[in-house]
Amino acid sequence: MNTVYIVVGSVFLLWFVGGLCRHARGRNKVIHVVDSNCTGCGRCVKRCQHHVLELAKSESGMYAVVKQPDRCSACGDCLPKCKFNALQLVELIR
Ligand code: SF4
Ligand code: SF4
């Protein structure tokens, strides 16, 4: 029974510390779309659970825009979804 408590406690601790790290990182960074690389595939938009990104239309087609930068936690979940090197986490300028 003690083993169960230790395992559950360890998982909770890892989750808590990970959350603190993500929060600290998120205060300094924000997502940025490199327009010239974006194909408008929308994979990043679907991945972001915070609804930071949105697809917009231009004369040359669709592309991703950072619609709500204040909601970006800099979690980086969207980065591996982009196969075109169009997403970067950049320093937040206040
Ligand atoms: S870094 Fe995280 S919160 Fe920010 S746009 Fe990407 S998935 Fe959304
Ligand atoms: S995944 Fe990359 S190429 Fe696709 S819409 Fe997002 S930024 Fe653009």
Radius of gyration from CA coordinates: 17 Å
| Largest beta-sheet details | 2 strands, antiparallel
Q: Ions, cofactors, ligands: which are bound?
A: iron/sulfur cluster
* Percent range of helical residues: 25-40%
How do the strands of the widest beta sheet line up side by side? 1-4
Mean pLDDT: 88
The helix/strand class is alpha+beta
Distance between the termini: 50 Å
Stretches with pLDDT under 50, minimum 5 residues = none
Please count the helical segments.
2
In total, the number of strands is: 4
Q: Using the alpha-carbon principal axes, give the shape.
A: elongated
- Topology as a string of helices (H) and strands (E): HEHEEE
Strand content: 15-25%
Describe this structure in words.
The protein has 94 residues and is α+β, with helices and mostly antiparallel strands. It is 32% helix and 23% strand. The protein has 2 helices and 4 strands, in the order H-E-H-E-E-E. The protein has helices at 2-26, 43-47; strands at 29-33, 53-58, 61-66, 87-91. The strands form 2 sheets. A two-stranded antiparallel ribbon has the order 1-4. The longest helix has 25 residues, at 2-26. The radius of gyration is 17 Å and the shape is elongated. The N and C termini lie far apart (50 Å). The relative contact order is 0.23. The model has no long low-confidence stretch (mean pLDDT 88). One iron/sulfur cluster binds next to helix 2.
